[in-house]
Automatic annotation (TrEMBL):
Pfam families: CRISPR_assoc. InterPro entries: CRISPR-assoc_prot_Cse3. It comes from Oceanobacter antarcticus. The gene is cas6e. This is Type I-E CRISPR-associated protein Cas6/Cse3/CasE.
Length: 246
């Protein structure tokens, strides 16, 4: 696998390209990064439903903003990216983490946390973990300010509960050393219109950072490669890890 740091040139042609792509809202970054992997987009786009969910994604990414106010992407991919487009500057290196049980790692993780809940008809539906917690918070008898605080606390606890779930951690092959950091600004709700669709896509993202201990190296390596959670096409699921000193 390959790990890449991808930046956008501040040249005029690149800026024009970026403006044009940003008309697609949430799809802009994904569409831009597909250009690093020519020949793969058509085969991926042709997959439907569960086949698409179960297939190995060509790449995972996380978007941040660099010091010039331009997008900065971290990309994990099976194939080495090809930065043939003039808009890109791409620094790539092989990604081969050597992990052992007991290794301590600092991590950053952006996810779209969801929970499956069965309705009255017994059909399972996905719900935003934080919105579901806010909806179910009992705020009867509270004034508006107190109700907002209680809902915010319920959402915060739900976000921590999602990443701290023992079953989920076992599936990932890790343990958390302590409660990860999760401040108010790390939770975002997104709403975008599909470029060729008629309905609105709504999803949320939560940014975590903290310390973890590797329990099952092989399983965690698989977790790193596949990413976690939903909305990977919108920049979720990629682990950024580094070794702790000492």
């Amino acid at each position: 696998m390959y790990f890449s740091r991808v930046t956008i040139s501040n040249a005029l042609t690149a800026s024009q390209e970026l403006v044009e792509l940003q008309k697609n809202g949430a799809y802009a970054s994904h569409a831009l990064l597909w250009q690093l992997f020519p020949g793969y987009e058509d085969s991926w786009s042709n997959l439907k439903g569960k086949a698409k969910e179960q297939a190995q994604r060509p790449f995972l990414f996380r978007e941040e903003i660099d010091s010039n106010g331009l997008p900065l992407f971290y990309v994990l991919s099976e194939q080495q990216p090809v930065a043939a487009h003039p808009a890109f500057a791409c620094q790539t290196k092989p990604y081969q983490p050597r992990l052992s049980a007991g290794d301590r790692l600092a991590f950053k993780l952006r996810v779209n946390p969801v929970v499956s809940i069965r309705d009255e008809q017994g059909k399972s539906r996905r719900h935003d973990v934080l919105m579901n917690a806010k909806k179910n918070a009992d705020v009867s008898g509270l004034n508006s300010h107190a109700a907002q605080q209680k809902k915010a606390l319920a959402a915060h606890q739900a976000a921590l509960g999602w990443i701290s779930d023992n079953k989920r951690l076992a599936e990932w092959g890790i343990q958390l050393e302590s409660e990860p950091e999760l401040d108010h600004d790390s939770y975002y709700q997104h709403q975008h219109y599909q470029p060729k669709g008629k309905h609105t896509i709504r999803y949320s993202t939560v940014d975590y950072q903290g310390l973890l201990t590797v329990v099952d190296p092989e399983r965690f390596l698989q977790t790193l490669a596949k990413g976690v959670g939903k909305a990977k096409g919108f920049g979720c699921g990629l682990w950024l890890i580094r070794r702790c000193q000492g």
